[in-house]
Structure prediction request, 71 residues.
Amino acid sequence: MSRAKCPICGCEEFYVKDPEDDYGIYEFRCEDGEICFDPETDKEKIPDIDDKTETHCNRCKWHDKMEKLKR
Prediction:
């Protein structure tokens, strides 16, 4: 299994912001190019995520488009 890592700190956990809630986030890992949310995450509330979605590292200041993680 290959996990995406932050290009700055090497963290394997990321999040995207909830487009409808300024304080809401959805945390995930990216394994073998697939987004893996915590099993307890309400799947109906997860926003659509594509290659252009702004993605943030869960540990440091890095953020960029999802496509940067899938490489």
Remarks:
- The beta strands are 14-17, 25-31, 34-37, 54-57, 63-65.
- The first strand starts at residue 14 and ends at 17.
- Residues 8 and 61 are 9 Å apart (CA to CA).
